[in-house]
Amino acid sequence: MSRKATWQDFSDSDPLYALLGELGEKKVVNGEGEMDEDRLVEYIERLVQPGVAKPKDWIEVWAAMNIPVTLAMHSLVVSSIIEHGVRSEVGDSIGEVLAELVKGHRAKVKAVEDAVKTVFEFGCDEKDCIARFLLLIFPKSPTSEWGWSRVGWSWKEWWSLAEKIFTCLETSAAFEALRSLLSAMETESGTYLPHQQIWDEKRLATVRAALCKYGGLQEDELAAAVDISLS
User: Is 0.90 surpassed by the pTM of this model?
Assistant: First the structure.
């Protein structure tokens, strides 16, 4: 009897290593560039089991999947990661997975936008996936050192993406996602938003207006509705 492939020997002790080895033999994309969606879902469901993969590990997994560099393919894969990930026991880490894939130059930003809008359309984000993703790709600055540094990636570009994503949610869910995001920014930076270099009055006014729109509030009601300094 022939000896099993090396990766199979690690299916219990190192499931990520075994999965990467399996990806090399049982490919998600065939030679004609066609996606085996059932196989893709099978791999994702295994990856979102507790203890199998850390968010950064998904960068290597994506590379091993050899996903064609097209928006449609990227959107399909990201949609599947979100859809199956948020329902799993590690659902609260999916926002970080998406951020790692974007920052690791695997998934296109536009693909994440399209996937999030598809999965969460007119719904809510119970696992705070959206807020976590947007927090981690916030433009890096002296007061947002955790963020993303990339040529051409500015507050304007970031807010444009955020607004498109929030608009797809049910309005109260959009309000809660934005509130959660801004609160997390204060926590991460250790200072109020108006004291952060990247938040000028015009930008603060923009998010105040968005919160009022999503929450059905007048601006003088905002301070009582959110525990965040916005002016």
Answer: yes
